[in-house]
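Example 3.2
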Amino acid sequence: MSLLRAMTLLAVLLLVAGCGRKPTCPVSSKKPAPAKPAAPLPSADEKALQQLGQNVFTAFVNGDSAKFQSHTVAALAAPELETALRTVRKKESRQFIARLEAIPPDKRNALQLDTLRLSKAFLANPKTAFTNEWRELQVIISELGKTQLQFFQNLTSTNAPLDWAQAGEPSMVISINPQADLILPEARVNIVFSAGGKSYRLQLSNCAKLPGHGWRVAEELRFIDLTAEAATEKDWSTDLPAALNQAKAEGKRVLLQFTGSDWQPDCIALHDRVLTQPVFRDWAAQKLVLVRADFPRHTSPSRALAEANKLLVRKYAVQGFPTLLLLDATGKELHRIEGYTNEGSLVWVGALKKKLNPDDK
């Protein structure tokens, strides 16, 4: 499994076990603390992110791959990148130690004790300790650079979904990660523009502020046809009881999707590469009633919907995102899909067809 799909750049740097190295991001059994309002971006950071978005957009309009790559993490020379990331790791280790030592020794769990030990060992000799991590990071960042370049080439080729020469002046929508104490600051830049009478969003998420190098694109990019996205959203309901009634009346099955739509890499990839594609949408319209239980981080669903989705997680014992359940009209689970391993829409839909009906073509 590709590490690029499973973790963000920040998660690679952490020593603690997290959802980044697993095929799905686990659902916490604890009630999450209320999200803190994001602190306003310092004006210098806001200006820098605005400029980063404008520079990337200009590179796409001009088909200038070198200009685009110059704004990515992968463009940094290896010695400079190693130094920057080692600096981040040192700061993180100090932060871990401060937090964990504030917990009474008899209250620390095994993971906390292990993290404390590893963090102290790292600070005792950071240059040597970082060597193994750096080898892994080099591979990951190199692959990220290749993925980003391929994305750029696909969107600027003669077969691209739009004519960039028609692109109007973009609007930049910037959001900072609400965790204000992150050692490696993260932000998302949404570049919204129109071309040929349609609206699009080029999403840079996440961007990271590396020590000594400023804000850079640090993950895969997304390109969203907002017109098509709006049509796709109409396919999905959030009301399972109503969906079950509809399935009974129409002789269909229900596909219930559990997702972290705006933050979990596999959920985003499944959405972009399968669930929004005509091969899935056309077939699903004939055979399925679609329901989504979403657990976003960048938007806030109504309290009633959030509580209903939590109940569904417990009812169906969902352990991670993405998880999709094929249900009959009574709500009985017939088949479960956990995770997403980058299959194309034809392969993914073909596998689901066989589970729905082995003879279904």
